[in-house]
Known about the structure:
Blueprint: E1 3-10, E2 14-17, H1 18-25, E3 39-42, H2 49-60, E4 71-75, H3 86-93, E5 101-105, H4 111-124, E6 130-138, H5 146-150, E7 153-161, E8 167-176, E9 182-183, E10 192-193, H6 196-219, E11 228-230, H7 239-245, H8 268-277, E12 285-289, E13 294-302, H9 314-319, E14 323-324, H10 328-334, H11 343-346, H12 354-359, H13 361-366, E15 368-372, E16 378-379, E17 397-401, E18 406-415, E19 425-432, E20 437-441, E21 455-466, E22 471-480
Parallel strand pairs: 2-14, 4-5, 4-6, 11-12
Antiparallel strand pairs: 1-7, 1-8, 2-3, 6-7, 8-13, 9-10, 12-13, 15-16, 15-17, 18-19, 18-21, 19-20, 21-22
Helix pairs in contact: 2-3
Amino acid sequence: MTGIVSYGGYIPFYRLARKTIFQSVGWINSATAAQARGEKAVANYDEDSLTMAVAAGKDCLQGADPHSLDGIYLASTSLPYRERLNAGIVSTALDLLPNSRSADFTGTLKAGTTAVLSALDSVSGSKCEKFLVCAADCRLGKMGSSQEHLFGDGAAALLIGKEGVLAEFLDSYSLSYDFMDHWRSSEDKYDRQWEDRFVREEGYSKIVPEAISGFFAKTGMKPNQISKLIFPFPYSRGQIGITKKLGFNPEILPDNLIATVGDTGAAYSLMMLVSALQEAKPGDRIMLASYGNGSDVLCFEVTEEINKVSGVRGISGFSKRKAELTPYEKYAVFRNIVPNETGIRGELENATAFSHLWRERRTVHGLIGSRCKKCNIPQFPPQRVCVNPDCGAIDDMEDYSFSGKTGALFTYTGDMLSYSINPPAIYGLVDMEGGGRLFLDFTDCHLDELSVGMPLEMSFRRKYFDSLRQIHGYFWKAVPIKN
């Protein structure tokens, strides 16, 4: 049996109300008034598709040994690098072994499901035992455009394997078309879109039904055998009509996340799948269809293993952890839509020493420290000589991961003098569970909500951006644990 062994999701902390967008820039395009309802999830200034993929991967891998994985596929249309293995950064952050396979899937909104199919092929072909698929997108629409209202940020992750399968893979069907509805060239910062009615009527309303009908013709299954039908349709009307035309009961449609999260691109269908799995029961059959230059249709049957899932936040868990981002201008600065004054300190360039980063890649990206074998005290960064004055052991250390540990706030500072895109800069010391003390930046929080002793968790974030060399520097930050 091959299928989904575990799942995870991630939604950024901040939400931007669509009425806030319209009130600020609706004068550019008054037609967007029809879209000024609900809210969308927006990545913080230190987040991108890689950091969100790591967050979803962490959620998915709770309790699993990352060294047991055979590889990772990363799907996104908003990767920070065109010539650097983005999946390699995520792999290091999640502490996969270097001999694991990794690859980027990009160039289409159905990259997420294509990556899942590739992982299923690898595992079912007895080449691999466990394969992680992460999908994340941080898409950008022009100021005042309909895309700016529609697009949201988020991520999903699926662990594919043969043992402990909670959703067995039954079959699939794929279509590929060079359908030009959305596109972004190598020089474009923003998504471009053809006429909206054409996209809706010739794209979503024809390609997805053709793919689903093709699946039924191939497998012999019937609509009444499906418990949940998932397919992206980011329009307020039309989805129910398509569902009925295909022979489904519209009641099997889950929440499409548009009103609360938005269209998250390559991660969209997988995020809806994770959301459906969080509510699924044994025996349910879930049909998933993606969209983007064609469509991939996948069908899973939920097993008894679904009842053993625990500790996963998923889409429902992260949807409860949120704060409104205001004003609109703050969002525009976070996304680099408008320039902002950085001051002299902000103009200092952060140059990356690549030789040093290579040597310390597990420390920087994986938050791997050391633990003394003699006195059992964790320490970061990794040490040759134990920091315990009563021990002093030399070269008697083992690797120790801090990324999955929680901590308690020991001391903190709000600094208005150093440059921060979201002032004040907040940083301090964190006492980690099990031992060890780390000096970290804090994010997804405000200064007045912090208190000594409050619980914190680790989050992989973008530490800086070197604009001169176009380098994204990553490290880990501390985030307050919000119930």
